[in-house]
Design goal:
6 helices; mainly alpha; single chain; 2 strands
Length: about 100
Amino acid sequence: MSRDNAGQEQDATMPMDLASVIRSVRERRRMTMTAFAHALGVAQSVVSRYESGERTPRWRTVVKVFLMAEGAEKDFLLSTLSAIRGSHVTEIGRAHV
């Protein structure tokens, strides 16, 4: 168990959502929002909105996050991309897993 910003316990098996996966990928790579934004080609304020769930990234941005992800995050992003673009994405993604 870990604690969120409000001190509430979070179960490590909580379902993933796109916002939490984006934040997790950034934190795992030990990147600031500014550096992560630069890598994605967006403004820092946009990354902040992605992580808060206020904005949904474009498909190509999700692909960039996918290429930086690992493990379960990569699996989640691949399923997200597949849902957006269709099953052909699964075959493309497997080459990067």
